[in-house]
Specification:
The structure holds two protein chains of two kinds. By secondary structure, chain A is α+β, with helices and mostly antiparallel strands. Chain A has four domains: 105 residues, Sulfite Reductase Hemoprotein, domain 2; 157 residues, Sulfite Reductase Hemoprotein, domain 1, CATH 3.30.413.10; 93 residues, Sulfite Reductase Hemoprotein, domain 2 (Alpha-Beta Complex); 135 residues, Sulfite Reductase Hemoprotein, domain 1. Chain A is built from 18 helices and 21 strands. In chain A, a hairpin with a 5-residue loop joins strand 14 and strand 15. In chain A, helix 3 runs antiparallel to helix 12, helix 5 packs across helix 9 and helix 16 packs across helix 17. The longest helix of chain A has 22 residues. In chain B, helix 3 links the parallel strand 5 and strand 6. Classes of the chains: A alpha+beta, B alpha/beta. Chains A and B meet through helix 1, helix 2, helix 5, helix 6 and helix 9 of A and helix 3 and helix 4 of B.
Chain lengths: 552, 168
């Protein structure tokens, strides 16, 4: 993991002092609400339905056991004993007290964490694939690049008051678990024909009110030019992005209005001024950052283990867990383990302080003290020995963290929704729970197979509903909560936006609606098609016919 | 009392008369001030007549007005001012960078309009050289804010070499 040096530490201390003073001035009435608002937002602090909400960055999803214990401490000491992992590799505390927030930030700084730019109209936390560095299907480790972008974007003076928020994702794996194409800037790490590393640059993707898949503006940007090119994109957006209407202020609207070719030409023209200048990345800086993400000292192991095989044969639940939550690792004898935070009845992505400490202990014991946070609101232990899996499973099982649903229906993404969020039109968590209860059966889940179900409580789309194979969006109809369903969305390399199936549904209808959608899929599926494959083959009509069919 | 400060936080005399956005040539002729800060539109429309008055000019830009049109005039203009209609409008940060980095302007760039203490540090880093503070801003607060951070990551106008090339 990246470790701070004196510069990083100093900047964080300066920031805390600055925010402590801003908070003091606000509480003393010296700073108007409208002036304090963007300042607190750029420190991750929202004012929510019931209390402030503090969003803490987990940069590109990398988290140490020490940091997780600190988060547990904050949840217990400053909050109500739990916190929520969001869909952007952040963690959210729902009940902090404003006068205590500077103290929370100081506690976070002790473990090299912060809430800088996790909100507001600025460059947000850079995200990536949770399997970076351990995936057997990797082109290049994205973490050093993410750290380089983190530093470039942190306190960037020119881009602190953009037209709207700005999100960057980097992906170095073939599978793309980072929803790269629905970010303001998506960066795919690629190699050219001579083997040099660069980036395929996508721009103008995003969800929210106007969902758009990003478009390529550069097929191969040599890595040395990453920062000057990002500067050029942001400078065009900062000057030309719309500021008259916040719903049209994201870069995706600018790219659409100009057309991608005009936008590309503007970026290229802007870039000529800084290309090859002092902001050209150096081999030394890349090596410095890369050195923080070297492999741990792996044992020399083999890829089978008698105890594991025995338990697979004797313990069906272990077998289920292995099948869904354990993935291949690049290192022989190691596995990647996902902790699916979707136990039925628990809000997706929520973890209490005791569970956090428990998971931190497991990370120390089994995974070199490191974890990852995923945009699907799960946790990952990246480097677990195959032979440790039975013991790890037994431990997780005791704490209800061995839910074997990773990648299946019940591994759904859900925003906090109307129970917490002041933006929401409708609740999300009860919908997630009702669907989870209906389908809480491993055999059934397995029969349905790989599928994503994403729920957002409003069109801001924190729950990524547009890119769920099944998407659910809470809408307000004359003061009542209804749910609109979309089908066919996807956030992987073949990213697609879901299509609305038809008129929206009442809350209590939702489990039946999902059931009917799945009935069509199971009836029409050929061979081992995934839901998305069947959908792409047969289209939306058969689903519409069945879901809206009148009972005879 | 409006306060004008430089990047070190020192109070500076403001000898410039700033004319409003709809000002005309007559306003300039009638004013007794030798130093006149005119809106960009007036400068572009009446440049020759303005120069014929023998006065010294600066030009101010609103946040939606491009600075590129005065590229040929930079040597005539000791002062350029960039307006913040609201402190949330960040366009003028990029404009200052463009003026310094691309157009190589070396005169004074002044922040005018909704200029609050919490913007000052970033403004300074983007190449602004003076700040026309809102009435509500206390001088000592503004001076403090110019020193909010001791070090920064980025390559900027103020420090063109990014931290990664300077890291010890």
């Amino acid at each position: 993991m990246y470790r701070y040096d004196q510069y990083d530490r100093q900047m964080l201390q300066d920031r805390i002092a600055q925010f402590r003073d801003q908070t003091r001035r606000f509480l003393a009435g010296e700073l108007e609400n409208a002036q304090f608002l963007p300042l607190r937002l750029q420190n991750g602090l929202y004012v929510q339905r019931l209390a402030p909400m503090l969003r803490v960055a987990i940069p590109y999803g990398c988290l140490s056991s020490v940091q997780l214990r600190k988060l547990a401490h904050i949840a217990r000491h400053y909050d109500k004993g739990y916190a929520h992992f969001s869909t952007r590799q952040n963690i959210q505390f729902n009940w902090p007290k404003l006068p205590e927030v500077p103290d929370i930030l100081a506690e976070l700084a002790e473990v090299e964490m912060h809430a800088i730019q996790t909100s507001g109209n600025c460059i947000r936390n850079t995200t990536t694939d949770q399997f970076a560095g351990v995936s057997p299907h990797e082109i290049e480790d994205s973490r050093p690049w993410c750290e380089i972008i983190r530093q470039w974007s942190t306190f960037h003076p020119e881009f602190a008051h953009l037209p709207r928020k700005f999100k960057i994702a980097v992906c170095g794996t073939e599978t793309d678990q980072a929803a790269t194409q629905v970010h303001d800037i998506g960066l795919y790490i690629v190699r050219n024909f001579t083997g040099d590393v660069g980036f395929q640059v996508l721009v103008g993707g995003g969800l929210g009110r106007t969902p758009v898949i990003g478009q390529v503006i550069n097929e191969f940007l040599p890595w040395q030019h990453l920062l000057s090119y990002l500067d050029a994109i942001l400078r065009i957006y900062n000057q030309e992005g719309r500021r008259d209407n916040k719903y049209k202020a994201r870069i995706k609207i600018l790219v659409k209005e100009l057309g991608v070719d005009v936008f590309r030409n503007k970026v290229e023209a802007e870039w000529q001024y800084t290309k090859d200048g002092p902001n050209t990345l150096t081999e030394n800086e890349f090596k410095r950052c890369k050195a923080f993400f070297t492999d741990p000292v792996y044992d020399t192991l083999v890829n089978d283990d008698a105890a594991v095989s025995a338990k697979l044969n004797s313990d069906i639940r272990f077998n289920n867990w292995m099948e869904r939550n354990v993935r291949d690792h690049k290192q022989i004898g190691y596995r990647i383990v996902t902790l699916c935070l979707k136990a039925t009845g628990a809000a997706p992505g929520d973890l209490d302080a005791e569970q956090m400490e428990f998971v931190a202990d497991l990370a120390d014991r089994y995974s070199f003290g490191e974890l990852r946070v995923t945009h699907e609101q799960n946790l990952v232990l990246t480097d677990v020995k195959l032979l440790d899996l039975p013991a790890l499973y037994d431990a997780l099982q005791r704490e209800h963290l061995a839910t074997p649903y990773t990648g299946l229906l019940n591994d759904m993404i859900s925003c906090p929704g109307g129970d917490f969020c002041s933006l929401a039109n409708a609740k999300s968590i009860p919908i997630a729970e009702a669907i989870q209860r209906r389908f809480d059966n491993f055999e059934l889940q397995k029969q349905i197979g790989e599928i994503t179900l994403n729920i957002s409580g409003c069109m801001n789309a924190c729950g990524h509903h547009h890119v769920g194979n099944i998407g659910v969006l809470g809408v307000d109809k004359k003061g009542e909560e209804f749910y609109q369903v979309t089908l066919g969305g996807s956030s992987d390399r073949q990213a697609a936006l879901g299509k609305v199936i038809g008129p929206s549904f009442a809350q209590e209808e939702m489990p039946d609606v999902v059931d009917k959608v799945l009935q069509v899929y199971l009836a029409r599926r050929q061979n081992n098609e995934r839901f998305i494959d069947t959908y792409n083959r047969i289209g939306i009509e058969p689903f519409q016919e069945h879901v809206y069919a009148k009972a005879d | 009392m409006p306060k004008l400060i430089d990047t070190l936080g020192n109070l500076v005399d403001n000898a410039w008369l700033q004319l409003p956005k709809d000002a005309t040539l007559d306003h300039v002729v009638q004013s007794s001030s030798k130093l006149v800060l005119v809106p960009c539109k007036l400068w572009l429309a009446e440049k020759a007549s303005l120069l014929a008055t023998g006065k010294t000019f600066g030009v101010w830009f609103d946040s939606d007005e491009p600075v590129g049109h005065i590229n040929a005039d930079l040597a005539l203009l000791p002062l350029l001012a960039l307006n913040f209609p609201t402190f949330m409008d960040g366009r003028s940060y990029s404009k200052a960078c463009v003026l310094r980095q691309q157009m190589k302007y070396e005169g004074e760039i002044r922040a005018i309009g909704d200029v609050l203490r919490d913007q000052l540090f970033y403004l300074k880093r983007c190449g602004f050289s003076s700040f026309d503070l809102k009435d509500s801003v206390k001088l000592e607060d503004a001076q403090k804010a110019l020193k909010d951070f001791t070090t920064n990551y980025q390559a900027t106008v103020e420090e063109p070499v990014p931290l990664y090339r300077r890291r010890a």
